[in-house]
Amino acid sequence: MIKRAFLPLLLLTSGLASAADLTEMEIRWLSAGAAVLSYAKQDLKLPIDITVQPQSGPNDVPLALGYDKGRCKLVLSMRGNPNAEDILNNVAPAQRPLMIEAMVAHEIGHCWRYAQGVWHVLPAGFEASQGQSNSTPHEAAADQLRDTRREEGYADLVALAWIQQRHPDQYATVATWMRQVRAPSPAAGSHSTLNWLQLAPTGAAFTPGLPVFEQASLVWRQGLLQEQ
């Protein structure tokens, strides 16, 4: 059942009249991510809205994040989507809420970058190579793919930093699953983040005592250095 303390927050941000407007799958996913969403909204004051699509499209993933008019949009596309939970097929039922929690933390990592105004922006001290006026369409597309992959790598590290902070005994399980999900494949594209995940094989990669976004950023910078 969805956590009672989170129910008013869910209804406020989603615009739904009641929990009865949610499907069983949507409730399970939002319940699993409740701690992340509560932290993001109540502690960090991130501008997050929850959007439930009435009908998913053929290429929709079950959980995604967008940004519009200064607000993050956490979008659930599960209705009419027979493959919504395929990503959890190889996960034991008892561990699925943990993996969903990591996925929600990943999306909140994206929200943080948007809210800070640094989406596709490198940290200070790193030189951006894109933006040449004489770039070919192929080079421009390659730059866009690289920038998006960097953001996905950062968000994956936020997810792992969150798990290390909240569920350190489960870190190895989640990290192994994420590496399996991100394993190289023709369809991986912008989500080919294995090089980032390999920087955090254990929770010891993250600096304790810092906010998860800063912990992730320190490891992320190591990956950026390797690109140079």
Automatic annotation (TrEMBL):
Signal peptide per UniProt? 1-19
Q: Which UniProt keywords apply?
A: Signal
Q: What is this protein called?
A: Peptidase
Q: Where is the organism placed in the taxonomic lineage, from the top? A: Bacteria, Pseudomonadati, Pseudomonadota, Betaproteobacteria, Burkholderiales
